[in-house]
Amino acid sequence: MLLIECPWCGPRDESEFAYGGEADISRPIDPDALSDAEWADYLFMRSNRKGENREIWNHQHGCRRWFVVERDTVSYAIRATFPMDGEGRSP
Amino acid sequence: MSQAFRLPVGGRIRRDEPLEFTFNGRTLSGFAGDTLASALLANGCRVVGRSFKYHRPRGIMAAGAEEPNAIVQVGRGQHAEPNLKATQVELQAGLEARSVRGWPSVNFDLGRINDRLGGVLAAGFYYKTFMSSAGSWHRSERFIRRAAGLGWAPTGSDPDRYESRNAHCDVLVVGAGPAGLSAARSAALAGARVLLVDDQPELGGALLACRDTIDRMPAKDWLAAQAAFLEAQPRVRVLRRCTAFGYHDHNFLSLVQHDLTDHAVVQRLWRVRAKQVVLAQGAFERSLVFPNNDLPGVMLASAVSTYIRRYAVRPGCQLVVFTNNDSGYQAAIDWLEAGGQVEAIVDCRDDVRGDLPRTAQSMGARILTGTVVAGARGRSGLRSVEVAPAAGSGVARQKLQCDVLAMSGGWNPAVHLHSQSGGRNQWQPEPACFTPGNPVQAAVSAGACNGVFGLRECLAQGHQAGQEAARRWGFEPAFDEASEAPAMQSGALMPLWRVPEMRGRLAASKQFIDYQNDTTLSDLRLALREGFEHIEHIKRYTALGFGTDQGKMGNINGMALVAEGLGKTIPEVGTTTFRPPFTPVRFGACAGGDVGDLYEPVRKTPLHEWQVENGAPFEVVGQWLRAHYYPHEGEDLETAVCRECLATRASVGIMDASTLGKIDVSGPDAETFLERLYTHDIARMSVGRCAYGVMLGEDGMVMDDGVMARLGPERFYVTTTTGGAANVLSWMELWLQTEWPDLQVRLTSLTETWSTIALAGPNSRQVLRAMGCDVDLEPEAFPFMTTRTARLENEPVRLFRISFSGELAYEINVRSDRADFMWRRAMAAGAAFGITPYGTETMHVLRAEKGFIIVGQDTDGSVTPVDLGMNWMMSKSKDYIGRRSLARPDCVRPGRKQWVGFRSLDDRTVVREGSQLVQGDTLEPPVPLLGHVSSSYFSACLGYPIALGLLNDGKRRHGEELLAVDAGGGRTRVRVVAPVFYDPEGERQHA
Questions:
Q1: Buried b / exposed e along B685-706 (16+ C-beta atoms within 10 A)
Q2: How far apart are alpha carbons B98 and B40 in whole angstroms?
Q3: What is the number of structural domains in chain A?
Q4: B737, A84: Cβ pair inside 8 Å?
Q5: Rounded CA gap, B498 and B510, in Å?
């Protein structure tokens, strides 16, 4: 079970959190300007890298804040966590 | 039977506490401090089980978790526990144990015939025999399971109680042998919070059978001093009878503790987050591979020592030791000290010069160097061994009489937890074992599990590991010294994975590698001949390492022999994966206290009590208990629902709708925010207006629905489905926090703050009047789809004029602590109108008559609002989540499933929900499936059954006849109709 550093509450067990997928995916400002392929890319395609990833997590059974986690999907090591718009915090 | 093999003195058993127990129905005696295994050996029980496949007699080989043979069923009835290792069962008064195999008895087993059929039953037997013709496995499985099975699991629910606890510590030390005790002490002295766990009832590990001195005192005195010291430390917690069985991510470990002192709870699961871990679980001795190496009486050398020194049991009279290293000599020394006779020590090495061999020799033991045991002989137990030169000519030289053979093939460090933590293992040519590689988590291995086998070295390494673990977490180590044991000279181990091939009868005898699964040397060779090369494949083909012991004794031998067969090195072949649990764990321990009524929380509405009083059966929706219906005397579900439906449409019904999710959305940007999440135009809603809203996922599929009301320019009251309440709140938070942090919106869940009483039916207005409603209820003053604050029965309430039944209807939202009062007053006020309480079933029928969907029943995440015919409520003047997806090719393709109604042609049959819709009468495959029925009821108001569902191109198929086929094969002819059956113009709700 991962130990995740919530930027607001500190280190907590994974069971308090919900995983939200890849970070840094912004909703297009004007969806109508996108081709079907571009929209599908936003909707479905994720990089799913082996190794370092930026993810969003929600402290669902805590402060309910979403935040960014930099996590290695091979070693499961968490390099840092960030508020959505803030500075990183190393575990 | 007396304990004929019990030594008159010595051991750690408590002779003043004799215990009686039964084994296979025989009453035997032992002492407190015994294991079942030591007590069986004390009573001379040589055969304790039968082997898995060949039903060969088997005896106790080991003294710990690596025991492959002594598998027993303990207890009776619902308390019975199958497949325990006798070596791990603490003896208790009245304990009942049975062998898990052997028919008619363990001493005379008819299944022994399989032993003669060995050639047929080799590796791959099941695949080759049963998978070739269809059905043969199904015919034979019952008999094979009975012959080859392990114990019997009780069939009822487990009456035992379990619990779980969370713990945090600076340093977790696993194993309380010399290394673990030293580590715990040095970490504690440095000031760290220490958790020390050990699977035995008393601390000490290998020290419990040790004859050496530490710090110039007998090991047992040193042990007592360490244990007392640790117990006295306020920052040290010691858990005995506690096995660390799983090492998970981020230094999270799971432990299971057997608590024999407190029968209220039989096992406790510990979930431990450790800042540092010291692994000191010791090592498992390796067996040796030679013909008939499974005869009862063949034991691990260290187990022989343990039984003598710890349990005061010498399991025989005449001993032969077979070893490839110095540690095997310990068994001979202990045997001689215990008054036994040592026939010979058979050592495959030519050059023997360590301290232990010297001691054994000085005590008169005969040492045969450069020699191996070429095979064992005996029928139901060991009688003799034949020895031959290690540099094999294939001819046995000599026969040695013996009833116990102590074998030592070297040691396998217990790298299990290190491996589970993600660490790799390294092969050490000297002393020929896998040791932990670099730790990948905050852990360090010390002592025998790190490949260090001398007592002196274990003490030093444990001490250092404890200091290091404390230092890494910021504690300054104290100036204490490691404890010392005398230095010992020992000779190098000579790897011996098998003995030379013999001629004659022994050549045909089985040589066991994995005793529990009856995997032999010839099985491995067969697998290699058939082309298996990867150790994970060979494992699965031969069952090597699959038993309840998980190959703790035989796996490395197997891998070395595979390496030999493939002409590879052992590290090239590698090990199979080490997975949790280290030893079997009961499901009960994993479940803990979260069983039965405590399995998951139950939510009850504030109106629950009235519903119980009035005999409502309940239905679980989400975690809520909702009244299903309110049967009168003699009514079943069907008749009660018909009555409730008719009464509601004719006069007035009342239901508890408190479980609906309710979210207050406030703030300057509340309107903008909701515009982006719901499909309809929010800006057009004036204060006091209600609107039905549908929420889509970004993929355009319907996610939730509900009515929202505008309470003010910057304030909305949004309701959700019962099951979707938490998801919708999370969804709103996700968008606010990640995508639109600039929006000023506050979200507050009010689901439990407000209770909702729905009044439906033409007389609902009269009921409100009778309750003293202080607002004008006339249609012009309080029209459909509006909301008002009001007083009812002098209590403040919020009234919504909305309808999920198609009738004139109101929802009363009242503070939850006044809900019960309000409901009872409504019942009183409605009595004159025959007010009828109704449950979820009637609610479903009423809404189905109107064609209203239930998200999650009629939709499944693949349905767009267009499919449901909801175009009228999808704004064309704004963007919202999911809108762009509705223009994706798949969402606009012709032939999508669309929302339709169905009528049974016979006007009698209620089609089963889930039925598939097909065309034509013949069901000759392939049968194209055109859609399915998602809701289906008998409509009392209409007098015939109605159904709703999704059908390919449904909107254009009204009037067509189809066949509905349910999972049981039932067929009903139906006609496709519009999905609104009752009052399609909607006049009643506007009344």
A1: beebebbbbbbbebbbbbbbbb
A2: 12
A3: 1
A4: yes
A5: 12
Q: Give the span between the Cα atoms of B355 and B337, in whole angstroms.
A: 17
Instruction: Measure in Å the smallest separation between the Cα of A15 and chain B Cα atoms.
Output: 12
What 8-state DSSP symbol labels residue B737? I
Q: What is d(CA B273, CA A3) in angstroms, rounded to the nearest whole number?
A: 9
Q: What is the rounded CA–CA span in Å between residue B767 and residue B764?
A: 5
Displacement of CA B159 from its chain's centroid (Å) = 19
Report the sign of the C-alpha dihedral through residues B677, B680, B685, B691, in that order: negative
- Give the pLDDT score at A88: 60
C-alpha–C-alpha distance, residues B895 and B911, integer Å: 24
Q: Radius of gyration of chain A from Cα atoms? A: 15
Q: Say whether A2 and B733 touch across the interface (CB within 8 A).
A: no
| Residue B737 touches partner A, C-beta closer than 8 Å | yes
Structure tokens at B738: 């990640």
How many CB pairs below 8 Å do chains A and B form together?
57
Q: Distance between CA B385 and CA B583 in Å, rounded?
A: 33
- Nearest 5 degrees, angle CA B263-CA B265-CA B271? 145
Q: pTM of the predicted model, to two decimals?
A: 0.90
**Helix (H), strand (E) counts: chain B:** 24, 49
What domain range is A66 assigned to?
3-25+33-83
HSE at residue B302, side-chain half, CA atoms within 13 A, is 26
Chain-centre distance of CA B745, in angstroms? 41
What pLDDT does residue B1 have?
47
Q: In what order do the strands lie in the sheet with B661-666?
A: B690-696, B702-712, B715-720, B661-666, B746-749
Across the interface, which of B271, B273, B737 has its CB nearest the CB of A3?
B273
Q: Comparing C-alpha atoms, which of B705, B674, B717, B694 is closest to residue B873?
A: B694
Per residue in B83-97, pLDDT (tens digit) is 999 999 999 999 999
- Nearest chain B alpha carbon to A37: B888
The whole-number average pLDDT for the span B678-697 is 97
Distance CA B461, CA B33 (A): 30
* Residue pLDDT, tens place only, B521-548: 999 999 999 999 999 999 999 999 988 8
The number of beta carbons lying within 10 Å of the beta carbon of residue B779 is 13
Amino acid at site B832: A
Q: Helices B178-189 and B219-232 meet at what angle, rounded to 10?
A: 40
Within a domain: A89: no
Q: Which residues between 439 and 468 in chain B have a beta carbon less than 8 angstroms from any beta carbon of chain A?
A: 440
- For residue B845, the number of C-alpha atoms closer than 13 Å in the C-beta half-sphere is 28
CATH of the domain at A77: 3.30.2270.10
Q: What is the residue-averaged pLDDT of chain B? A: 94
Residue in chain B nearest A84 by alpha carbon = B738
* A28 and A43 Cβ atoms separated by less than 8 Å: no
pLDDT at B147 over 70: no
A47 found inside a domain: yes
Cβ-based neighbours of B724, under 8 Å, separated by 6 or more = B661, B703, B704, B855, B856
Report cis status (omega within 30 of 0) of the bond before B431. Answer: yes
Note the Cα B747 to chain centre separation in Å. Answer: 37
Q: How far is A45 from chain B (nearest CA, A)?
A: 13
Contact present, B586 and B153 (Cβ < 8 Å): no
Q: Which amino acid is at B955?
A: K
Q: Is the CB of residue B716 less than 8 Å from the CB of residue B707?
A: no
Closest among B2, B118, B4 to B54, alpha carbons compared: B118
The answer to whether position A88 is within a domain reads no
Interval B630-670: pLDDT, tens: 999 999 999 999 999 999 999 999 999 999 999 999 999 99
Omega before B82 within 30 of 0, i.e. cis: no
Query: A91 in a domain, yes or no?
Result: no
Res B313: pLDDT: 98
